[in-house]
Write a structure and sequence with these properties.
By secondary structure, the protein is an alpha+beta fold. Helices cover 18% and strands 33% of the residues. The strands form two sheets. It has an eight-stranded antiparallel sheet with strand order 1-4-5-6-10-9-8-7, sandwiched between helices. The protein starts with 10 loop residues before the first helix and ends with a strand.
Length: 209
Amino acid sequence: MISRGLLLPVAAALSLVACSGAGGSGFGNGYYSLVRPARVVKVGNGSLTVVPPREWNRANRGIFTDVRWVEDWTLNGPYLDGVSFVSGLPDDEKLIQQERKADRKIPKFRASMTAPEVAAMVETLYRVGAGSVDFRTLALTPRPFLGQPGFQFDFEHLDGDELWRRGRAVGTVVNGRLYMVMLDAARSHYYGAALPDFEAMVVSAQRRT
């Protein structure tokens, strides 16, 4: 999820050029590559793998961000839907890069964070990085992930384009590192359409040691 997910800084300007396809068919101009279904795929820095149930479009690394622990995919373009993978974000690192002179800072991940604190970090990411004008927590519940105790965070947000989006994050902290898969999509149609894929990838997720 590029423009509404974790890779926020320049993707909004690029996405209209980059998105020339839909429904997993592959986007042009070199910004995306096609992910084949039913195969084990390494994401982020390679310490997390998932098995997508159908074709997705992967944002090529190094174009939008240099946070090597984060990778974004989309089905129909970044304004409509996307999944972000966080593959072992270490202590004292941020989910996205931010200018040093930024007035409002996005908090760094801390190894000691609880599930509510991670949820608060995600909310701040949307409010500061994406300019969300309204952010609502729908639920925060325990959920196993990667064979560890984890959490599920459901939320929705309204951004400056006046389109409501809905999200779900499933994650856990293992050995002081954050592992998380997050879906963010337009609330009408696109969220529900992408949710089965998201859940399949969460279930298939494995940590590589």
